Amino acid sequence: MCLLSTDSGFYSIIDYTVDGFDTQRELVEAFAEIQERWVRFYPGYRSARFHVSTDGTRVYNIVHWASEADYRHFVETSDTDGRMAAIGKALEGLSGKAEPRMTGVPTYTVVREVGPGPQRLDA
């Protein structure tokens, strides 16, 4: 078994249901622009990855931070009202429907990762 080193990063995972492929594409474009205008220049920001389901019903935005402290600094010092207004405007501008699916605070740390290696044969 090959275990990769645990990434010390911190993640915010944003989950939306959408009503089709066009809405997926529009939501990704809108949220990518929000990352570029409101988030990516903060210290500790590493990336935002967008995942779309193959059936056209879900979009995940996984925002990677170097540490929880960097994420908390962003939350404390960023223009949350402006960013939330931009998100609201983006959602209103979609041709279809998108609804958030997050409950609670959508933040996570990596605790384990299994990488490539030989098949484990023991019982």
Low-confidence stretches: none
Q: What is the C-alpha radius of gyration, as a whole number of Å?
A: 17 Å
Q: Which percent range fits the helix content?
A: 25-40%
Largest sheet: 5 strands, antiparallel
Number of helices: 3
- Strand tally, please? 5
Give the termini distance in whole angstroms.
13 Å
Query: Kindly state the mean pLDDT as a whole number?
Result: 91
The SSE order reads EHEEHHEE
Share in β-strands: 25-35%
Shape: flat
Structural class: alpha+beta
Features:
123 residues, alpha+beta, 5-stranded antiparallel beta sheet, 25% strand
Description:
The radius of gyration is 17 Å and the shape is flat. With 123 residues, the chain is of the alpha+beta class. The chain contains three helices and five strands, in the order E-H-E-E-H-H-E-E. Helix 1 (21-39) runs antiparallel to helix 3. Strands 1, 2, 3, 4 and 5 form a five-stranded antiparallel beta sheet that branches. It is 34% helix and 25% strand.
Write the layout of secondary structure elements.
Blueprint: E1 10-18, H1 21-39, E2 45-52, E3 58-65, H2 68-77, H3 80-92, E4 98-100, E5 107-109
Antiparallel strand pairs: 1-3, 1-4, 1-5, 2-3
Helix pairs in contact: 1-3
Concise summary:
The protein has 123 residues and is of the alpha+beta class.
